[in-house]
Design brief:
8-stranded parallel sheet, 15 helices, 6-stranded parallel sheet, alpha/beta, 368 residues
């Protein structure tokens, strides 16, 4: 049995990477793999529901913004080898850094390592640098024997920023357990969705750009489309969204649900999903939306263009006016059941069984 340690930046904030890792470890063959997970930063927003055979190790750093947390991050990025010796347990056949930056730094040198990148890495070229110099990032990537990328855009970003890593790249598009998502969507919801409705799913932060979603809602109302918008998630821009909604006279149409343990009943109750992110990897929320038969309108980020099927009425946009027009058309679709069926068919292309098969082939190709 192969012992595997997944290293993730956070496994307790209810984000897409956490949900994806939970799906992966719960579906890997328990007869072949002895799996553990360790998170760098801990928040206590959500406890992921892993199978009983999965070991979740004590976290390294508490998520509270304290001087101790900042000190711990400094040590990770400036005294990396010693930090790994202190915090990453030995004795595993394979170590997997489940995203770049912190998980890449935490990969132990000289071991069987995989780096799994979930977004584009162009921020590594920004000035001032986000974390460290480009060449030091590249050194962290050198520790990996394989680098898994989850979308065409992620692959291109790695090739553009770290061309030296070209021969290590393995592309595996994200997968989804469609039956589980549909089953959860049938559960009772505490929130009654008012129609017509648009879902906005994700943390309320600058990258997700929820204020842009409010402005698009304003355009829809200017078009005499009195639709509701449900923000499923929480974050530092919560009050900003509320304030802009009030300023635009949309208070009764903007619904801030906060973080939901099970968002799928609300998503299913909406007519369309809107994504306004500036950067993404492979958006699981879009795949979940398709699974529920709900078309999406998204900025051209991550896998959004890949997931657009010419028949399922999804689209990518650049200008707010285009997004508003696209949503308006979705809300006034004459054959919504046909659209829903095409959405579900698109999601089936990312079936969980085929996804896990691809992952296991990579895991089996490294080490004993």
């Amino acid at each position: 049995m192969k012992k595997i340690l997944f290293i993730i930046n956070c496994f307790s904030l209810g984000g897409g990477a956490e949900a994806l890792l939970t799906t992966i470890v719960n579906n890997l063959d328990p007869e072949k793999y002895d799996i553990s997970i360790i998170e760098f930063v801990h928040y206590s927003v959500k406890e992921e529901k892993t199978n009983c055979n999965i070991k979740v190790l004590p976290y390294i750093v508490n998520g509270e913004d304290t001087e101790e947390r900042r000190h711990q991050k400094y040590l990770l990025f400036h005294d990396t080898d010693n930090y790994i010796k202190q915090h990453i347990p030995e004795g595993y056949d394979l170590y997997i850094g489940f995203n770049y930056l912190a998980p890449a730094y935490l990969l132990p040198p000289g071991k069987n390592n995989i780096l799994w990148i979930h977004g584009d890495v162009y921020d590594c070229l920004q000035e001032p640098m986000l974390i460290e110099e480009h060449d030091q990032q590249n050194q962290m990537y050198n520790k990996a024997k394989k680098i898994i990328v989850i979308s065409d855009r992620t692959e291109k970003s790695v090739l553009d920023v770290f061309p030296e890593q070209k021969d290590k790249l393995v592309k595996i598009y994200n997968g989804i357990d469609t039956e589980k998502v549909r089953r959860l969507s049938e559960e009772d919801a505490d929130i009654s969705v008012m129609s017509p409705a648009v879902a906005v799913v994700g943390r309320l932060d600058n990258n997700k750009n929820p204020l842009r979603a409010v402005r698009i809602l304003r355009l829809l109302h200017d078009m005499e489309c009195r639709c509701h918008m449900y923000f499923i998630g929480d974050g530092k821009l919560h009050e900003d969204v509320r304030a802009l909604s009030k300023e635009e006279g949309l208070e009764e149409y903007v619904h801030l649900t906060g973080y939901l343990e099970n968002p799928f009943p609300v998503m299913k109750g909406c007519d369309c999903m809107l994504m306004t992110s500036g950067s993404e990897g492979f958006q699981m929320s879009l795949l979940e939306s398709l699974t529920l038969g709900v078309p999406f309108i998204s900025t051209d980020v991550g896998a959004s263009r890949m997931l657009v099927n010419e028949d399922n009425k999804c689209m990518v946009f650049e200008q707010d006016n285009s997004a508003a027009k696209g949503i308006y058309e979705r809300l006034h679709e004459t054959d919504k059941e046909d659209v829903a069926r095409e959405c579900r068919n698109t999601a089936l292309k990312y079936d969980i069984e085929k996804y896990i098969e691809k992952i296991e082939r990579v895991l089996d190709s490294i080490g004993g």
